[in-house]
Automatic annotation (TrEMBL):
Membrane-topology annotation of the record: Multi-pass membrane protein
Pfam families referenced in this protein's UniProt entry, alphabetically: PTR2 (PF00854)
Keyword Glycoprotein listed: no
Gene3D superfamilies in UniProt: MFS general substrate transporter like domains
An individual GO BP term: oligopeptide transport
InterPro entries: MFS_trans_sf, POT_fam, PTR2_symporter_CS
Organism annotation: Scophthalmus maximus
Gene (name only): slc15a1a
Protein name: Solute carrier family 15 member 1a
Domain of life: Eukaryota
Transmembrane intervals: 50-69, 81-102, 114-135, 156-176, 196-220, 275-293, 327-345, 357-376, 549-570, 582-603
Amino acid sequence: FSKEVCGYPVSIFFIVVNEFCERFSYYGMRAVLVLYFKYFLRWDDDMATSIYHTFVALCYLTPILGAIVADSWLGKFKTIIYLSVVYAIGQITMAVSAIHDITDSDRDGTPNNMTFHVVLSMVGLFLIALGTGGIKPCVAAFGGDQFEDHQERQRRTFFSVFYLCINGGSLLSTIITPILRAQNCGIYSQQKCYSLAFGVPAALMLVALVVFIVGSGMYYKAEPQGNIMMDVCKCIGFAVKNRYRHRSKQYPKKQHWMDWAEDKYDKLLIAQIKMVLKVLFLYIPLPMFWTLFDQKGSRWTLQATNMDGNFGLLVIQPDQMQTVNPILILTLVPIMDSLIYPLIGKCGLNFTPLRRMTVGMLLAAIAFICAALVQIEIDKTLPTFPTSSQSQLKLLNMGSNPVTVKLPGYDALNFCSISLNFRFVNGMNTTVNVSTPAANFGQIVPFSSSNYSQIKNGMFTFKLWSGSQSCEYNREFGYGSSYTFFIPNTLVFGSTCQESITVAEDIKPNSVHMALQIPQYFFITAGEVMFSVTGLEFSYSQAPSNMKAVLQAGWLFTVAIGNFIVLIVAELAKIPKQWAEYVLFASLLFAVCVIFSIMAYFYTYIDPTEIEAQFKKSVNEDDEDDKSKKLQKTEVELVKRDSINSHGEEDKARQTKM
């Protein structure tokens, strides 16, 4: 064991710093991921949501692989090192995939070879999923290994600080990386800086790896002892095969199907597996909760892109709204433990862990009802866009008089200047230059338009000039708005410039405020505290001490399945209205909640420690009985042997006399 500082092994300080940096890296990258899919790779909402949840599902499947590799082959230390290298390579690959200048041959700000960026990003995400999932079950356990048996208090403090680092890294990264993403960067053209938003988490992952390696000489490195999950799987497999071999009626029935493993495996292991299977059976409905919960990083973030994030002195980015979750977790956990649960107990209500989990599910469903109501308000403000089977016609009148246009089957329409994107249209007979600190439109030749440009919200000043003449035009832009500025041929450069330019508001600014998302975040976080924290506590209390890893694997597996359900619904259901999809998920969780409450009603709480003690006592008594029976059998055999010997001697005596 390593040297100690204030009663703590020096090695754990390296582990704590490593965990903080790794969690910052993971959650920082994940915070901006769905917007990267939509706005950089140009995927639609369903595709972006599907790939996002596929990635999250892989992140919760690979811990099982990491635990098996660490416990059965490499050990925790080497597993963390090797997979952290894979993890860092994945983060760097993601950062490189977001550099638009690599394939932007015409330098217009849009990659010309999108396949390159898609392939690179998918490789990066796969490596990240393998790395973050693989080290997830190892780091905390490796930290626990650094303490000796007499340091139980220090070990508990370590785990508290360890999980505080997880929440701290998550909170800070979710605040910082969206700010980095919102910056403009580029070599030839300025675009949203996704490369910087991915690059900083990549740098933090490299720091995490270096810090962990620096402390390598101080670690206690336990040798691989074998993985309990493999033993459990082998025992269950043998029981199933043995039961199938003895399926004929001529064989007596067993009390439990796992009893068919008694021919090969220890009875205590079989009894422990029975207890675990009881808990795993309750896990069956749980994925639906995670189906809703993890959408705060996908659907809810996309919902926030159509909302106004101006909070006065503070402007919130759409992907920063996710910070509400860790802030509420740090607030609600102590409130629940020290206030809510004790008050419920004083009211005489038996608020058991399974009842808490049921209420947590209900709160998550209510959160999605709130999200649906917010989406209905957003839909009222959105323009009508053409569907995949429709086309949209944009007409621009560059003359000084209104023009009437007639289309077959439609009434006569009067058109002035209409456009979908932000740009300037030059209606003058001379070339006009337009620029602003955020964008340079360059020269706009007569009767043509500038390139489409995107700028941040707020007040901007545009400079227009032609030859030696110039003027300034001021305009304030809101979230999600789109304008066309028409420069008429009657424009006179000077003080009247502001009044002369015609503005067409193609898309109105987002008017639904992001603050309306706070109730849904509150309900989903309250549901998480009652469901997730209580669920882990319940699972650990109902399983033997050597089966904690099995339950942890089962719990993570429910998270992965929940994310795959989102993938299925997003790709197959194709519900046209987003609010209807929210209602669908809420309804599904309500139905699952009813099923889970019925299963919980018939569940009988157990004390695994007491059951194991009774079982061991019973086994010892059986062994004593076996020993007693063997002793009695031996005594009988000895008596018989003595009797036979005495009869033999008598026969010999008779023969001698004869």
